[in-house]
Specification:
Chain A is about 60% helix and about 0% strand. The first copy, chain A, is built from 10 helices and 2 strands. Chain A has helices at about 20-40, 45-50, 55-60, 65-90, 95-105, 120-130, 140-145, 150-165, 175-195, 210-220; strands at about 5, 115. The longest helix of chain A has 24 residues, at about 65-90. The structure holds a DNA duplex (30 and 30 nucleotides). Chains A, B: This is TetR/AcrR family transcriptional regulator.
DNA sequence: TTTTAAATGATAGTAATACTATTATTTTTT
DNA sequence: AAAAAATAATAGTATTACTATCATTTAAAA
């Protein structure tokens, strides 16, 4: 039995809810694919419209601009990751095991239990790695933050921080360590693939050395 | 006595060397200011031309496009940072002291000894924090890397990694830890300013807690 | 089942962006 | 003083990033 998942997104992310119509879901589905294929800079609503077989104007009824679409899909990813985290750490007793799961989740090592037919999660994960930071590295970050657009990312970060505190209640940098873990996992994956001399992992498909690095980083930092 | 500094840049970064003419230096100087003021997305050569009092076409003779200009200035920053690192760690015996300097350099705590009259280094540092990652988070990363555009970043990373190995010669993740340190220092500074709940530092100007966090992260990771 | 409303398609249009090209003028070097 | 290099002035193009209008299709409510 597969678990059907529907994530309710912050309405400020869109003009019309893409999850409610065929066209909307197509925008998300093909949007993810196209951003992945040609990169966010070259991605336009025009190209996406042609891909889907609709018009530019129709896409603009769903999203104010391509940056909002990027924020929508990355935010969806963070929400989904938090679900995964809750699901997979449920019933685990020791925080060490939970942290293990977190690192596995961040490095593609966990089999997905949830199904969303129009979202390809591994393509989405690849986008989050390459383009995700661009959703908050803008001049509108403060306005977007006030609209709560980054809440899912913060929630995930906070949940991870709490697990860190289970292991070491006196640790004074739980949130910074959590955001560092998320960012580092993704950035090292990116470097491994594109700028390998900034890492110690070579270019092999193997994620184990990265996994060990992150484990080492987190557990030594949390050790009393 | 102030040290005059001239950094020789990779010619693939530009079409005409901006360091050789008044207009070129103005492009760098006002380019840094304008990118800082309006953000890289809204920055255009048109706007920069108006700012300088020249024409768009003249700027295009120096840089192929605005992305190249961004890579030029961030690369300049990494080269300058490596100079600073060499200068300030010179004659230091213990790697612990050197690592201290590295962290101070990454968090704006070191007084600059070099002078470059047309580059405002604290504005540049702010750009590197907000926009720097965009120079390699593109579809052209592999081509740019082949042209050695990221060599200064890699050199800095390698130098830091070597210092880590002085402290712990058996540490297997020296490069990843170095790139993580650089990225984390900047990302946490960004979060502190714009998304403070992803950190434990509040929004005060104080960089000390960040400094402690980074010290803790690095020294526990390197500890045998 | 009609009617009404909502969503989409088709088309057009605008201002700005990201360039390239040409020629005249100024500045620098020889 | 002549030659070469750099810059300014101007123009032009394709694409991007939208907004607007109206006709048509599809879905929801009466």
């Amino acid at each position: 039995m597969e678990l059907q998942l529907q994530i309710k997104m912050n309405p400020k992310l869109y003009l019309r809810d893409p999850d409610g119509t065929d066209l909307g879901r197509n925008i998300i589905k093909h949007g993810i694919q196209l951003i992945h294929d040609i990169g966010f800079e070259d991605f336009t609503f025009k190209k996406l419209a042609i891909e889907i077989g609709t018009t530019e104007a129709s896409i603009y009824r769903y999203f104010e601009n391509k940056h909002r679409l990027l924020t929508y899909i990355t935010t969806w990813f963070w929400t989904w990751l938090e679900y995964q985290l809750i699901f997979h750490t449920n019933n685990l007793k020791h925080p060490k095991e939970k942290i293990d799961i977190i690192i596995r989740l961040l490095t593609f090592q966990v089999q997905d239990k949830f199904i969303v037919e129009y979202i390809n999660k591994s393509t989405l994960h690849a986008i989050v790695i390459c383009e995700g930071d661009k959703s908050y590295l803008t001049k509108q970050v403060t306005a977007d933050n006030k609209s709560m657009l980054f809440k899912p990312y913060k929630d995930l970060c906070h949940r991870i921080a709490e697990i860190f505190l289970e292991l070491n209640p006196d640790f004074p940098f739980s949130h910074s360590l959590a955001s560092t873990l998320i960012e580092t996992a993704h950035r090292q994956l990116y470097f491994k693939e594109h700028l390998p001399s900034l890492t110690d992992f070579g270019k092999s498909k193997e994620v184990k050395p990265l996994f060990s690095f992150l484990q080492h980083l987190i557990f030594t930092a949390l050790n009393k």
